[in-house]
Amino acid sequence: MDEEYDAIVLGTGLKECILSGLLSAVENYKVLHMDRNDYYGGESTSLLLAQLWKRFKGSDEPPAELGPPREYNVDMFMMANGALVRVLIHTSVTKYLNFKAVDGSYVFNKGKIHKVPATDVEALKSPLMGLFEKRRARKFFIFVQDYDDNDPKSHEGMDLTKVPARDLISKKYGLDDNTIDFIGHSLALYRDDSYLDEPAIYFIKRVKLYAESLARFAGGSPYIYPLYGLGELPQAFARLSAVYGGTYMLNKPDCKVEFEDGKVVGVTSDGETAKCKKVVCDPSYLPDKVKAVGKVARAICIMSHPIPHTNEAHSAQVILPQKQLGRKSDMYLFCCSSPHHVSPKGKYIAFVTTEAETDDPETELKPGIDLLGPVDEIIFDTYDRYEPTNNSAEDNCFISTSYDATTHFESTVQDVLALYNQITGKTLDLSVDLDAASASEEQ
């Protein structure tokens, strides 16, 4: 390997594949992409049922009553919304994928599952609020829908870059804690309540994005999901990188990052060293440059019915805000089925995930699992989350963070965009016209 690359990317997880595609297609980098595995996707792959059973049960013969094993594509991670959609369109990766809208978006509140209201009309119909609260919520949603950065009249005399979200929601519109809870966690998709003390502009834009996505996809949720599972996403970005000259090498064992004077100079595998200026990788490739920051608990459930109280939705997300569970972390349910080509007809795959707060994930996940009704099979799993500790400006190593418990991929894309900025010194412009590009991914 005498060639020198602008960047070597290690691992074919979604984050690494997006970065590989962006660096190749947008920045014209010469990229070599390597993985110790013989398949794309890393920890964000989709598994056939036999692969799932072998990984977690030690047997590649799942129960016959689950149906044809090859009709399953079981994701290790989940769903797309907002910023990821913009990245897909910005890079034209949509030409390699087919998407279908997720049927429903729900929130767990006071012991029940409710549809998430995202507009002034839905606010008036929602059983989440009493009569007077509905009217206050309606005024808030109208403000969000009408808000425009470039139209001072829509700001109602406020500078949202200075007004905290807490003041806007509770003082300006008088919304109660219950309403704030579901708006902040199931529309703005925040994982904790620290946003309440941050400038309200970020909160408003996240709620606005939710409502715009909901209207655009013309379904019951603001989410889209690729046919055959999220394992298709890394492969699509790999194709993009290859089109722009990226080189892929799978099944490369013992990829060792080489350094001189503290800076990366290449990667060695099978006795050969490929030279490079930068390395992009997941935490497993540079374990001495990361630290453990938490643990995710998840349950993978196979069922013969949709999640109860979701209007018989073939696919749905349910967010369980932390306050509703007396926890520090939100819990997420996601269910998908045969219309997305991830299971045989009549079978549903549900995921329950949360940030682990104890050493007993089965007990922690019980509030979410209890909402599923009867379960045919269940697999419990935990994995550690890592964050980089290195200074990428000094060693030219750009390490992604581990995937968190969220099912909507917002934090995943924010990590990708931050890494892109660190690698290139540029901010990726995602101000694309979503409506103009809608035909390519709403197939």
From TrEMBL:
<dbReference type="Pfam" id="PF00996">
    <property type="entry name" value="GDI"/>
</dbReference>
<dbReference type="GO" id="GO:0005096">
    <property type="term" value="F:GTPase activator activity"/>
</dbReference>
<protein>
    <recommendedName>
        <fullName>Guanosine nucleotide diphosphate dissociation inhibitor</fullName>
    </recommendedName>
</protein>
<keyword id="KW-0343">GTPase activation</keyword>
<dbReference type="GO" id="GO:0048046">
    <property type="term" value="C:apoplast"/>
</dbReference>
<dbReference type="GO" id="GO:0016192">
    <property type="term" value="P:vesicle-mediated transport"/>
</dbReference>
<dbReference type="GO" id="GO:0015031">
    <property type="term" value="P:protein transport"/>
</dbReference>
<comment type="function">
    <text>Regulates the GDP/GTP exchange reaction of most RAB proteins by inhibiting the dissociation of GDP from them, and the subsequent binding of GTP.</text>
</comment>
<dbReference type="GO" id="GO:0005093">
    <property type="term" value="F:Rab GDP-dissociation inhibitor activity"/>
</dbReference>
<dbReference type="InterPro" id="IPR000806">
    <property type="entry name" value="RabGDI"/>
</dbReference>
<dbReference type="InterPro" id="IPR018203">
    <property type="entry name" value="GDP_dissociation_inhibitor"/>
</dbReference>
<dbReference type="InterPro" id="IPR036188">
    <property type="entry name" value="FAD/NAD-bd_sf"/>
</dbReference>
<comment type="similarity">
    <text>Belongs to the Rab GDI family.</text>
</comment>
<dbReference type="GO" id="GO:0005737">
    <property type="term" value="C:cytoplasm"/>
</dbReference>
<dbReference type="GO" id="GO:0007264">
    <property type="term" value="P:small GTPase-mediated signal transduction"/>
</dbReference>
